[in-house]
């Protein structure tokens, strides 16, 4: 019982803090942080656990978003069902491209994913323009029906929903990190030959990690679709391809809470600087270079050991 | 079964492996009997490790075949050979440096005694296996108890080697192949590793690739001496050391080693 409580303490605290943020900051900001964190944790898992850097995460984000978008624009009104469809599309898509991609080395993997994001961008913008309405995108905000129970068609309801989804996703990744599979991912990142000679198959381990991570990205895409009420090719724009990687490194690669911290810092910086400076993207670019040079462990990687030391000091004092 | 126990458990027939113009292993035939302790010796570049890599499936030979318990495994992938009961260590110690000592052991234990299924791996935690009697026994036997929760990257070379051997023994393979398990170890560590291996004599087939023959001469029952990719002698220790070709190549190494140490 105490063990379970201790296990849940971290994720619960993190999301309680995010919920409390709502008191200080606008709803739109906190929701953006929640969704983008979910988007980033997949990327962080791939990079930190499996050693795969991907510059094509928008591709998977877009598959989730368009899965949900097509359903809500053409077929139905239930946002929960839309979310499920987005999630399943992401899963199926990752399972389809994964077997080809996970055979590649990390650098080629990064590029092939980027190429995929570009392909999807042009598919949605030009090739399938009849269905996707090209650059205008699909607008379905008014199609989304209210739901009994938690009404995610309204921003407040959606905020609570995002908190719950986030908590579930974090608990899931915390569990995966503790599992034998999670250990195998780390092992495969470092020494795939040794893993083979213990009798494990690297391919299966990587494929599963790939599918888990990119289904999570698709989930974030679905959530964007429902929250914003529209999807346009902009979501898979190659210009945004490096964002999750940057946020991952900023937060602390592979750490459980890095993606949340990184997203908070990144989104916060974007908001604050864009209000002050005209060319905010340039300013952020310089700031990011500086931050990366200052600490390659990222924010959480630098903070965590300090927090743990402080925590053990407090514990020692309490014990006395 | 009883007739089988004397028969070869691993057999190589005329295997050849080339790297470009270099023939690293040239027409080598060799057979390992069940539960014997065999040594493969030779100078640097003699082809020991390449031959070892052919036996364990790291390379596929250009010519010849490799048999395990009467089955042709020449082209079988590594995983299948492991599942059949072959396990190896590496010349350059090979552990998972980003995991704790105990989790390295858990991975070795889990695959051998629990499951291969990805789903099972996802739905079982490392924590649940850290106190398995066999894992605890391995920590004890290899004197790694104090390092249990340390990340392997913080271990000394000797400790890493002990861990790697512990991992391969934890899987309880029928054939244990050790590639220079004593290289870089202090004399006291060599003694303790040999002591642990000594307890397995008669229970497992053990093959040791070594460079320094003197360290394990009492331990191995049969030698294969290689030179420039060929087998130059095979048999008991004394018998091999008397062999004129071995004397020529082996003393030559010994002299060079003394030169290095000075």
Tell me the name of the CATH class of the largest domain in chain B: Alpha Beta
Helix tally of chain B equals 10
Tally of domains of chain B: 2
Greatest contact pair?
A-B, 26 and 35 residues
Parts with pLDDT < 50 across at least 5 consecutive residues of chain B: 1-5, 258-262
> Gap between N and C termini of chain A, in Å?
25 Å
Reported by name, the CATH topology of the largest domain in chain B is Rossmann fold
Uncertain segments of chain A are none
What is the CA-based Rg of chain B, rounded? 19 Å
Summarize the structure.
By secondary structure, chain A is an all-alpha fold.
Descriptive terms for the model:
heterodimer, A: 320 residues, mainly alpha, 2 strands, B: 262 residues, alpha/beta, Rossmann fold, six-stranded mixed β-sheet, four-stranded antiparallel β-sheet, 10 helices, 10 strands, 38% helix
Can you walk me through this structure?
The complex is a heterodimer of chains A (320) and B (262). Helices cover 78% and strands 1% of the residues of chain A. Chain A is an all-alpha fold and 320 residues long. Chain A has one domain (2-238). In chain A, strands 1-2 form a two-stranded antiparallel ribbon. The longest helix of chain A has 27 residues, at 202-228. The relative contact order of chain A is 0.17. Chain B has two domains: 1-85 and 174-262, 3-Layer(aba) Sandwich (Rossmann fold); 97-172, no CATH class. In chain B, the strands form two sheets. In chain B, strands 6-7-8-3-9-10 form a six-stranded mixed sheet, sandwiched between helices. Chain B has a four-stranded antiparallel sheet with strand order 2-1-4-5. In chain B, α4 packs parallel to α7. Chain B is globular, with a radius of gyration of 19 Å. In chain B, 42% of the residues are buried. The model of chain B is unreliable at 1-5 and 258-262 (pLDDT under 50). At the A-B interface, α7, α8, α9 and α10 of A face α3, α4 and α5 of B.
């Amino acid at each position: 019982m105490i063990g379970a409580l201790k296990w849940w303490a971290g994720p619960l605290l993190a999301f309680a803090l995010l919920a409390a943020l709502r008191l200080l900051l606008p709803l739109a900001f906190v929701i953006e942080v929640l969704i983008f964190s979910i988007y980033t944790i997949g990327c962080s898992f791939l990079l930190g656990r499996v050693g795969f850097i991907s510059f094509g995460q928008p591709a998977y984000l877009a598959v989730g978003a368009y899965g949900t978008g097509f359903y809500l624009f053409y077929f139905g009104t239930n946002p929960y069902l839309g979310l499920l469809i987005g999630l399943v599309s992401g899963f199926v898509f990752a399972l389809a491209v994964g077997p080809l991609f996970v055979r590649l080395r990390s650098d080629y993997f990064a590029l092939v994913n980027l190429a995929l994001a570009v392909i999807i961008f042009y598919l949605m913008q030009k090739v399938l323009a009849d269905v996707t309405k090209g650059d205008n995108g699909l607008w379905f905000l008014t199609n989304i029906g209210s739901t009994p129970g938690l009404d995610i068609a309204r921003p407040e309801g959606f905020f609570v929903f995002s908190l719950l989804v986030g908590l579930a996703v974090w608990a899931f990744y915390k569990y995966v990190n503790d599992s034998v599979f999670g250990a195998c991912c780390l092992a495969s990142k470092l020494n795939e030959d040794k893993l083979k000679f213990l009798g494990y198959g690297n391919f299966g381990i990587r494929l599963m990690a790939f599918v888990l991570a990119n289904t999570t990205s698709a989930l974030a895409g679905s959530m964007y679709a429902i929250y914003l009420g529209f999807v346009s090719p902009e979501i898979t724009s190659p210009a945004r391809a490096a964002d999750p990687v940057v946020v991952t490194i900023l937060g602390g690669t592979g750490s459980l809470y890095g993606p949340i911290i990184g997203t908070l810092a990144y989104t916060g910086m974007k908001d604050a600087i864009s209000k002050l400076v005209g060319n905010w993207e340039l300013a952020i670019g310089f700031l990011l270079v500086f931050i990366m040079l200052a600490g390659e462990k990222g924010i959480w990687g630098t903070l965590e050991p300090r927090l743990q030391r402080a925590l053990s000091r407090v514990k020692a004092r309490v014990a006395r | 079964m009883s007739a089988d126990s004397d028969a070869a458990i691993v057999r190589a027939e005329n295997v050849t492996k080339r790297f470009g113009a270099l023939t690293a292993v040239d027409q080598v035939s060799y057979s390992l009997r069940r539960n014997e302790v065999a040594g493969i010796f030779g100078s640097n570049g003699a082809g020991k490790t390449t031959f070892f890599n052919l036996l364990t499936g790291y390379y596929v030979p250009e010519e010849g075949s490799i048999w395990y318990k009467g089955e042709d495994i020449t082209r079988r992938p590594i995983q299948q050979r492991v599942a059949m009961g072959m396990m190896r260590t590496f010349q350059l110690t090979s552990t998972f440096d980003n995991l704790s000592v105990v989790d390295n052991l858990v991975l070795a234990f889990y695959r051998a005694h629990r499951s291969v299924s990805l789903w099972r791996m996802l739905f079982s935690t490392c924590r649940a296996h850290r106190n398995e009697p066999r894992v605890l026994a391995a920590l004890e036997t290899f004197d790694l108890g104090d390092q249990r929760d340390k990340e392997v990257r913080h271990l000394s070379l000797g400790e890493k080697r002990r861990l790697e051997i512990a991992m391969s023994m934890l899987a309880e393979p029928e054939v244990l192949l050790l590639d220079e398990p004593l290289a870089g170890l202090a004399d006291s560590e060599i003694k303790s590793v040999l002591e642990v291996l000594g307890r397995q004599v008669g229970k497992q087939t053990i093959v040791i690739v070594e460079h320094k023959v003197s360290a394990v001469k009492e331990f191995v029952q049969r030698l294969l001496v290689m030179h420039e990719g060929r087998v130059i002698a095979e048999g008991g220790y004394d018998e091999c050391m008397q062999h004129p070709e071995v004397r020529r190549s082996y003393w030559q190494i010994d002299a060079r080693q003394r030169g290095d140490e000075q």
